[in-house]
Design brief:
By secondary structure, the chain is mostly beta strands. About 15% of the residues lie in helices and about 35% in strands. The protein has three domains: about 270 residues, Rossmann fold, CATH 3.40.50.1820; about 90 residues, Thrombin, subunit H; about 140 residues, no CATH class. It is globular.
């Protein structure tokens, strides 16, 4: 069925009482503030109980029962501050330790506090402490200072775990530029007697200069930036034993520039499971090491003609170190598999065999149950499932939409906050079967008084027969007898999904503002984007921008088939990979687009970093033709329309060399383009300056697409 969601009838999103016009400033700054649907802030399950907590006005700690509520205030942040001589503005970094006590994490202080006794303990950390990681079970803290790892106990005893004077040796931080699901670099063992940590040697990585104009005179800020085809960081994993004070190191077994990722401890704290990915990223091995870094065995290996990309650490649902669950998409979709080993015998079997994508593993139970989120029947959704050790799977959220859930530690209750095309936010408590037992919030539409139209979500068929999801936003006063110009908002890159069954359909409020300026605002999720499985996503390998452009032009053909579309007034805008796609569409489809705005664009993949870039394009020396075809610089002479290039001058993700090299090419061939820098902003423009950015982007389109 081509029409995915019913859009012909009234919904909560835009009601007939709408009467206010939304300003651009409101649209940009208000989406996650004044127009954010009512929600519960700071929800946490209390361990080993049927109770939960949440924050009221950020400063009051509330307590309630899953079945009957009985909400009550048990503590204020002022009480904590008075007792502990701290200055928390709210319950920062709150996490329960047990039934009555919790810890708070501030910039340089950790507080353990019991709400019943009103007693607590405090650890004061050095001013320059970062990556603070708490062991709630033992009241110990590990953190980094610059490039080294430090450890501190409740009595204030501090010790340096690493002591490298060479700043190129970086310990305890995320490595591989946070690819492969890596978000941190410090890992407590379950029994809190050992600390594992990532370490990278960046000696051979290029020092890339960023200009700091806030200094007088300006100064260069050098960052380590491993560009595609160049030398990379060298990873290893340290294992520190608190009692002995000794550190052991795991080194890659398949090349000094291999990636180490998805680290997890076994439940008995005696072993570590670690994935090693070769630099070419077409081979992954899952290895088992003891806690003294001795290699024991390979549990699983996977190869691919495109890429392998482990993103989920092993989990142990039975608390048995010899039985673990691992996520791989080797059958075409991310699914859960069980690895069991005894001696030299290793078994590998599928637990789920879904033709849809597993997103995240949320929790496991001692009986082998695993709670996970997945797209389910529609790739636009995020649904909650449970599967047992026999592979019997249960959908626990029946309502279509995007569900954000937390499972109680005893597995009896589910906190579920969800939205959809027509639901701003609904928050409920479910029992273990998924039945709603209490409704906490049924949010009203925060935009009902504004003159906005609802988005239309459809599918169209790509040239290869693939269904492609689209979102179209029309002016509130839309007249089908008129001809409207079009702004295509594009991202198009891996892992991202612009269209979801959620409040505002994955879009931004500025799109609705732009629609009310007399535009049709259109988005299409092309092949290569996320949550559609391996076949949909991996076709882009070694040829970024090719299939993506083909699908975006299928979207253009669809738009041109609509009688109310002005076929001569197409604009395009995107950021990052979307900036790359904007440049690609403006050059390779120059006869289609009159104006484009490319923010933070990748202009040549040889300038991008190794971990992401080589996954999709291989190294430049191994794919010379692919890099040339994808390069905006190589295709600059094809540009016909008006093009505005934007970049943050401190961008450490897509460095500004991308844009400057492209501008240089335009100068050399005598083509005029526009360029606007955002001084000292990184990969995106945030805060109040974002209003300036969106005014710059949208005004440029309005002024030039006529």
């Amino acid at each position: 069925m081509r029409l995915i969601l019913s859009l012909l009838f009234s919904s909560l999103l835009f009601s007939t009482i709408a009467q206010k016009d939304l300003s651009l400033e409101e649209a940009v700054m208000g989406q996650y503030q004044q127009f954010y649907p009512e929600n519960i802030f700071g929800f946490s399950w209390v361990p080993n109980t049927d109770d939960y907590s949440y924050l009221d006005k950020y400063t009051n700690l509330m307590y309630a029962n899953a079945r009957n509520g009985n909400d009550k205030k048990i503590l204020t942040i002022q009480e904590v501050n008075e007792k502990m001589e701290t200055e928390f503005r709210y319950f920062s970094g709150f996490e329960w330790k047990n039934k009555t006590s919790f810890y708070l994490k501030g910039k340089n202080v950790i507080v353990f506090f019991d709400y019943k006794s009103k007693e607590g303990k405090k650890i004061e950390l050095p001013e320059n402490a970062e990556n603070i990681t708490v062991s709630a079970s033992s009241d110990q803290v590990v953190f980094t200072i610059e490039n080294n790892v430090h450890y501190m106990t409740m009595d204030g005893e501090s010790k340096a775990i690493t002591d490298f004077e060479d700043k190129n040796i970086v310990s305890g931080q995320a490595i591989a530029r946070s690819e492969f699901g890596i978000t941190g670099g410090l890992f407590w063992s379950p029994n809190a007697t050992q600390i594992a940590f990532y370490q990278k040697d960046e000696t051979h990585v290029h020092d890339y200069p960023l200009l700091d104009i806030n200094e007088y005179p300006g100064e260069l800020n050098a960052i380590k930036y491993p560009m595609a085809g160049q030398k990379s960081e060298r990873a290893r994993v340290g294992i520190y034993n608190i009692q002995s004070g000794k550190t052991y190191y795991i080194k890659p077994r398949n090349g000094v520039e291999s990636y180490l990722t998805n680290l997890s401890w076994t439940p008995d704290s005696k072993q570590i499971v670690l994935a090693e990915v070769n630099r070419d990223q077409n081979n992954t091995v899952v290895d088992l090491y003891d806690n003294k870094a001795k290699f024991l065995k390979t549990l699983f290996a996977e190869t691919s003609d495109t890429w392998t990309e482990p993103e989920h650490a092993a989990v142990f649902p039975f608390q048995d170190p010899s039985k673990l669950y691992w996520v791989t998409e080797m059958n075409g979709f991310a699914n859960l598999h069980q690895i069991s080993y005894e001696g030299n015998t290793i078994s590998f079997e599928a637990i789920t065999e879904n033709d849809f994508v597993l997103k995240d593993i949320l929790q496991t139970s001692d009986n082998g149950d695993v709670f996970f989120t997945a797209t389910g029947d529609s790739p636009l959704n995020t649904m909650l499932y449970k599967v047992d050790q026999d592979g019997i799977q249960t959908l626990l959220t029946k309502e279509s939409g995007t569900h954000t859930v937390q499972i109680s530690s005893n597995g009896k209750y589910i906190f579920d906050s969800y939205s959809s095309h027509s639901i701003p936010n609904k928050t409920v408590i479910r029992d273990a079967s998924g039945k709603v037992i209490r409704t906490l919030i049924d949010a009203k539409n925060p935009l009902e008084e504004y003159n906005l139209s609802e988005a239309e979500i459809k599918t169209i068929t790509g040239k290869d027969g693939t269904e492609l999801y689209t979102r179209l936003i029309k002016p509130k006063n839309f007249d089908p007898t008129k001809k409207y110009p079009v702004l295509i908002y594009v991202y198009g890159g891996p892992h991202a999904q612009m269209i979801t069954n959620s409040w505002l359909d994955g879009g931004s409020l500025w799109m609705h503002w732009m629609a009310n300026q007399g535009y049709l605002v259109f988005t299409l999720d092309n092949r290569g984007s996320g949550n559609r499985g391996k076949d949909f996503e991996h076709g882009i390998h070694r040829q970024l921008g090719t299939l993506e452009l083909e699908d975006q032009l299928t979207g253009v053909e669809y738009l041109k088939s609509l009688e109310f579309v002005d076929q001569n007034r197409f604009a395009v805008h995107g950021w990052s990979f979307g900036g790359f796609m904007t440049g690609t569409m403006m050059t390779k489809a120059a006869d289609v687009f009159k104006v484009g705005v490319a923010g933070g664009p990748v202009t040549d993949w040889k300038y991008y970093e190794i971990m992401y870039g080589e996954r999709y394009m291989d190294a430049p020396q191994d794919n010379e033709e692919g890099y040339k075809n994808a390069s905006l610089i190589e295709n600059a002479d094809k540009l016909e329309g008006k093009l505005l290039l934007i970049h943050g001058t401190s961008d450490n993700v897509v460095v500004m060399q991308h844009n400057l090299a492209l501008v240089q090419k335009f100068v050399s061939i005598g083509k005029q383009v526009d360029f606007f820098p955002y001084p000292m902003h990184e990969h995106n423009v945030r805060g109040k300056d974002r209003i300036h950015l969106m005014e710059k982007v949208l005004t440029y389109i309005l002024d030039n697409n006529n």
